[in-house]
Specification:
The structure is a homodimer. Chain A is α/β, with parallel strands linked by helices. Chain A contains seven helices and 28 strands. In chain A, the strands form eight sheets. Chain A has a six-stranded mixed β-sheet, with no helix packed on it. In chain A, strands 16-13-17-21-20-18 form a six-stranded mixed β-sheet, with helices on both faces. In chain A, strands 19, 22, 24, 25, 26 and 28 form a six-stranded mixed β-sheet that branches.
Chain lengths: ~400, ~400
């Protein structure tokens, strides 16, 4: 293929791309915490006050002065006089004197004078005015102290953290009903090809419907970006140039899926090269599927020329586009990618020197979790629909064997 | 704890709950495919036509009649006369005669008379009108036949499939710009507690902000449900009964987080028991955290009484609420839950006979991926924020040892 001067290993290609994206700092916005699920914290969250704000009981029982319980046992109970009950939701209006005990619920506030709570199970009611204590308790036992969860001024959630239900809970606990998050990077999507028509059209003979605009948009949105459609463009320099320039101005980066022919790919690379400096960094990646991938940075914004084949486009977008979204969101580069271990059902030969990504169907069987490679003549979209995992065969491997335990990435 | 008559193992509790939810069939709606990411296919998708709809080349090269190339080799090339180029996006206007070859691009339509494509690399241009063929090609080589991806009438995506970018691509390829999906189950959330105030309020001494309404809503929405807030209710039967009845009518199921005291939990179970038949199925699960969990089905709708502690509430919601959402969405019960294998950093003793769920911080180290248990006096919300995984210690285990390879679930 004369168009490829040099095939670069995927990891090197990704590194080269990320190195060339200028560190402009994160762009942030303030939104309501209730809408923050899946967004990314833009600035360390500092606790405005301690948690809890008052000493709380962690059990149902009696608030006591621990010294009073020192010698208590089943055979030699300590007798304490039972005073008021601690109400939920307000401070107790009384102070506990020595040799007194006050009924308290989980979450209730310790009255002054008490320094521990004895669980209900280790007490016995003698009368309305007296209880027996059957075990000693230590100072602070069954109590959360002020600031024990969080101290005032403590950094509780770091910048770059993806907001999950847990973080929403933590923010609400501190009264932070608004939160500063990283703005979603806008990603312009352009689909090239003389043969490509909109999915709502009935294709004429020789035409195919646009898949990439929609599958890539879903992938980008799911990864935390904001996809913007720029439509279908014929394999022709001027039209592509015009729309690509507009997308590059309006978005944080641009993804172009090339027309499928070699000449269409030539048009794509020529247009990308002319969009701005430094221009094309990688043209051709040593990976299957997805060899004819173009990675560029133009006017400080990433530009991708993905293969037109819908399967290649999706696999390559997972390899290169998602890491760029992660990068622009300020997510940690070593974040976990979920995977499962499964047993390979067949031999998978692979050409050494080339990284392969194989679509895998994971199946639970009596022999455990099995990884069935999905073979298909030509990477058809419905083969990919059948898959629920991807297996990487590294460049230095000549393949894997049936029965091998392999790590299957869950996309 | 007198309120617990019997602690049921979590798996048994889940089975009992799911068995008691009547099989009413799935409720579906038709939406635009572009908005279908994360939704669930309600009816098998049947291909309205084959894919591809015409024979397509998978490479750049020449469309030929395979018999013509039978004896071709580098030393003994076959000479074919070069005719028109196949245009992209329309049917070729010509028919290929024997001993002819037509230039064709990846994705182009085979002209009548051609039955294979020879890759550009295995040809040589002699003149504008003649090429050399250096290899033989077999019938169908480098061609996708009509219907080779999908036959007309074939079931291509099954009911119960979660819609990913791949499915969106497949639907668009078939022109299915609208899709029938399962309606999101509406889940009513009620937060109980005399001490609980809204997060936008400054709590008085003795009060705490509502966490559960928001963390549970985020969890439910993320799992494909539609959370509906019914606010904060004091620990008092009549108020809770009124709001719970309304939620049960308006939603597919209801989640109540109980007040934290034993008496508040008693109110919750009494109210749930009176909401409808069959009523409370489980009161107390043999799991930590989350023992005081109530599982019920009232008037054929699931009702949950979750512990008031925010950590317990989230862990228990992952164990019981999400499987019910999966069930109501018609998702397969054995779907994969992503996990990673990591090395435990410390010993984890556990009481035999009780299932434990431990919050884990996964850390990449030079020794590989490590699983650090997060210990905390009392399951504080910010401990859970520090975690990025959960480790299950089964009831029949007395714990795990430092250095063990453990499977950590990624929540």
């Amino acid at each position: 293929m004369p168009e490829f001067l040099k095939l670069i290993p995927p990891d090197d290609a990704k590194r080269l791309l990320l190195q060339n994206i200028p560190a402009n700092g994160l762009v942030s916005e303030i939104i309501e915490t209730v809408h923050a699920l899946g967004r990314v914290i833009a600035q360390d969250i500092i606790a405005p006050h301690p948690l809890p704000t008052f000493p709380r009981s962690t059990v149902d029982g009696f608030a006591v002065y621990s010294d009073d319980t020192f010698s208590a046992s089943d055979s030699q109970p300590v007798y304490l006089s039972r005073v008021s009950e601690v109400p939920m939701g307000t401070a107790p209006s009384f102070k506990l004197a020595p040799a007194q005990a006050a009924s308290i619920h989980t979450g209730g506030m310790l009255p002054d004078g008490a320094d521990a709570v004895i669980m209900l199970e280790y007490t016995q009611t003698v009368s309305e005015r007296e209880i027996e204590i059957l075990r000693p308790v230590a100072v602070g036992e069954n109590v959360i102290k002020i600031g024990e969860d969080v101290e005032a001024g403590q950094a509780v959630i770091p910048q770059g953290r993806l907001i999950r239900p847990e973080e929403i809970g933590g923010l609400m606990a501190l009264g932070l009903t608004h939160v500063q998050v990283v703005k979603k990077p806008r990603v312009g999507i352009i689909s090239c090809g003389d043969e490509v028509v909109s999915p709502d059209k009935l294709p004429e003979v020789g035409q195919v419907r646009d898949i990439n605009s929609y599958s890539l948009a879903a992938l980008i949105d799911k990864a935390g970006g904001e996809s913007i459609q720029y439509g279908i463009v014929p394999d022709e320099s001027e039209s592509l140039m015009k729309i690509a320039r507009r997308a590059l101005i309006e978005c944080e980066f641009v993804v172009i899926t090339a027309g499928s022919s070699a000449s269409a790919r030539d048009i794509t690379v020529t247009v990308i090269a002319s969009l701005g400096k430094p221009g094309v960094l990688v043209h051709g990646v040593n990976v299957r599927p997805g060899k004819p991938t173009i990675l560029a940075v133009c006017d400080d914004k990433p530009v991708f020329g993905l293969p037109g084949n819908p399967v290649s486009a999706l696999v390559i977008a997972r390899l290169f586009v998602i890491p760029v979204i992660d990068h622009l969101l300020g997510l940690p580069t070593d974040r976990l990618h979920p995977s499962v271990i499964a047993k390979l059902t067949t031999n998978l030969p692979s050409q050494a020197g080339q990284e392969d990504w194989i679509a895998i169907r994971l199946v639970n069987s009596p022999q455990g979790r099995m990884a069935e490679p999905i073979f298909g003549k030509s990477n058809l979209i419905f083969n990919l629909c059948e898959a629920n995992g991807l297996l990487r065969i590294p460049a230095n491997s000549t393949g894997m064997s049936a029965g091998d335990a392999v790590e299957v990435l869950l996309p």
